[in-house]
Amino acid sequence: MTSQEIRQKFLDYFKSKGHLIVPSAPIVLKDDPTLMFSNSGMTQFKDFFLGYKTPTAPRIADTQKCLRVSGKHNDLDDVGRDTYHHTMFEMLGNWSFGDYFKKDAIAFAWELLTEVYGIPKENLYVTIFEGDASENLERDQDAYDFWKSHISEDRIINGNKKDNFWEMGESGPCGPCSEIHVDLRTAEEKAKVSGLELVNNDHPQVVEVWNLVFMEFNRKADKSLEKLPAQHVDTGMGFERLCMALQGKSSNYDTDVFTPLIAKVEELSGKKYTGILEDEKDIAIRVVVDHIRAVSFAIADGQLPSNGGAGYVIRRILRRGISYSYRFLGMKEPFLYQLVAVLQEQMGTFFPELEKQGKLVSEVIKSEEESFLRTIENGLIRVEKLIQQTIADDQKVLPTQEVFELYDTYGFPDDLTRIIAEEKGLTIDEKGFEQALNEQKKRSKADSAQKVYDWVTLEEKPENFVGYDKFESETYITRYRKVENKDGEFYQVVLSESPFYPEGGGQVGDKGILENAVESFEVLETKKENGLIISLINGLPKDAGAVFYAKVNVSERKNSQANHSVTHLLHEALRQVLGTHVEQKGSFVGPDYLRFDFSHFNKMTEEELALVENKVNAKIKENIALQEFRNIPIQEALERGAMALFGEKYGDSVRMIQFGTSMELCGGTHVKSTSEIGHFKIVSESSAAAGIRRIEAISGDKAEEYFKNLEKQIAELTQLLKSKDVVRSIEKLMEENSALKSEVEALKKEKAKGEIGEWKGAYEQKGDKLLLVKRTSLDAGSVKDIIFQLKKEIPTSITVILSDADGKPMITVGVSDDLAGIYQAGALIKDLAKEIQGGGGGNPGFATAGGKNLDGLENAYQKALNI
């Protein structure tokens, strides 16, 4: 049975049991402050469990793309070193929202595994929750009784809270669970040791294949449990492990989920995969084929590699794959991007985003490979210098700070530094490196640390967003909770009627005021979490149940919505000028400026930018009225021509924004007509990533301010140059400046010639060698030219020049080629530079150093005389 057939049989089975089959949600989460990625199948249904949204159907089934690389659920370090851990994996799941519960969930699972898939019953074991006295939780007797009708009692195992009580995170929906484990060992192995002894003991052939979670509690911030309003079922079956069981393999990597990718790596690298766990080459191949899946799906869902947040995680996964292939597969050129086509072939039918975004995905990966391989090459040079210096200092351990800087600042893999050092008979300070790494993590955690208390609910009532129509409204607080972070103590509030737009869709959240006759609070930010619009205020009202007036900062909101509306016009104009391949790949919309990322593979020309700008401004002048469709079926919106963005999760009903021929699905706030935008001005166009261009622009008040500043600058230049023809006057100044520079360079060369003649006769005999130590005020370029000439003309010599040009101390050392094996200019400069509180470097024949202490040149001079 192929992996495609296995996936399809799962969906067909649950469809026959009355489940609605829904597509996978994006792997990257855009509007969830608690998670970066979907790390389980239930992530997209979180609001249903919490009661914030009504499920689209009481029974649902799907296959969900998941990513586990950070936080509580982190499998990254295990990937490649065993047969079953992955970063990106598929989670097959069936869901019941207040419909069936334990009895049916267990019956469905058993029937599918044993009758549809045909797994021998004697190979299966199940676990149930044994209870936990500390939480006052009893043994899950119901699950035990239901399982008894399907499987012998000696195959039902009690499991502890760690294994059999599933929790979404520090807080949220949770409940007891029942795991199904499959024993894939040979008959001989089973005869020796019972599978009962190996369940939940990390045996590679006795693995959990399905987890049935019975959601009935909510974990509060104070760690207490409360009953959910309804009982739910949340199941998750690891697709890759299921394929291993059904295809009779002993490793996920031996299934057809991975074998086509492995075959391509073998073809490109010339290395043969043998499946040996400890073989570094095989570990590298497993890492590569796992990581390419994670990175490809993340990029297809709109998350580009970057230096922060979710983008940093994706970059880290990709760089881990590149590092392994560089070290153990000998791949010095980009090649991972060539695996994307294989992945498309395998999974494009079930995941059309991969098919649609394939070219972009491969271009981004190729660009990241090229960049990181350069980082590795540059890092190798730095490591070599570090090793040479360590040897010169007669040390055996590379300096911890420099090793950590290579890793942290330059992105050079620490294990590669370790390998190179060991080849030279050196080591790194493992304990010191770990300490530096932990300190960095602590700093990072402290910066983002936030303690969130439980909600205090004042009234159970649906909250209403009125911000599309109003800038202010009468309201009251329905719930609040305290938040503590490094900036102090604040309160998050949910309002019965909120005019504050929550951050989302690229648009910043509203700020404003929450006040009544007695007190006033500043609204610092507004975000959305689990379907709730949450505003952060700088205190707690004395009477939290009083009536308040919520007032949006109108000027900031108007500027933000002007910038948001203009991004829609910009998107349309770019598609008209550049082609329909252009798609939005990210945006930022604030009151001061907008940023728009889009798919395009070439730098835009000045003519293209001007044409786009003119098209947008023409639409603004047309004064096109906003047509807003707040609750339109998504299919109807798409048939009308609305743009839907890849990587966004849309419901059955959507909001469509239309300005003439521009139509997009969007939840943001917008101007009532395009004339409110005023004017649109592109400030810059640049590369955001491979295949992604970025436009930064301004509109409205900021555009007006921009042109006023230009007028002022031109007026000042006119006055300064005493000419109305500013351009011609500047050209004339540049010509004069160029001529003067040429004269100065000629004078410097003349002066240097004179110095060379004098310095040649100033060398002192030191045994059978010559030494010159000289003070000068010549600039760095002139000193370098002189030293290289003296090195050629004066054999067996060392030259030390100490300069105070422009009031800054500089020391330069030259060693003639015939002495380079005895004396190292880099080592000499390091010692002399201490006197001027500086540092520098170079090669054995030439080195230079700058410093801070000009007075130290005299000490350096005396020290140099003793070389």
Percent helix, as a range, is: 25-40%
Mean pLDDT: 90
Q: Tell me the total number of β-strands.
A: 36
Task: State the major sheet.
Answer: 9 strands, mixed
Terminal CA distance? 77 Å
Shape: globular
Count helical runs. Answer: 24
Spans of at least 5 consecutive residues whose pLDDT stays below 50 are: none
Binned strand content: 25-35%
User: Structural class given helices, strands, pairing?
Assistant: alpha+beta
The radius of gyration computed from the alpha-carbon positions, rounded to a whole number of angstroms, is 34 Å
How is this structure best summarized?
Helix content is 39%, strand content 25%. The protein has 867 residues and is an alpha+beta fold. The radius of gyration is 34 Å and the shape is globular.
Structure characteristics:
867 residues; alpha+beta; nine-stranded mixed β-sheet; 24 helices; 36 strands
Task: Describe it.
The protein is of the alpha+beta class and 867 residues long. Helix content is 39%, strand content 25%. It is built from 24 helices and 36 strands. The strands form eight sheets. Strands 1, 2, 5, 6, 7, 8, 9, 10 and 11 form a nine-stranded mixed β-sheet that branches. α8 packs across α9 and α17 packs across α18 (606-621). The longest helix has 35 residues, at 358-392. The radius of gyration is 34 Å and the shape is globular. The N and C termini lie far apart (77 Å). Its EC number is 6.1.1.7. Residues 1-709 form the Alanyl-transfer RNA synthetases family profile domain. One of its GO terms (molecular function) is alanine-tRNA ligase activity.
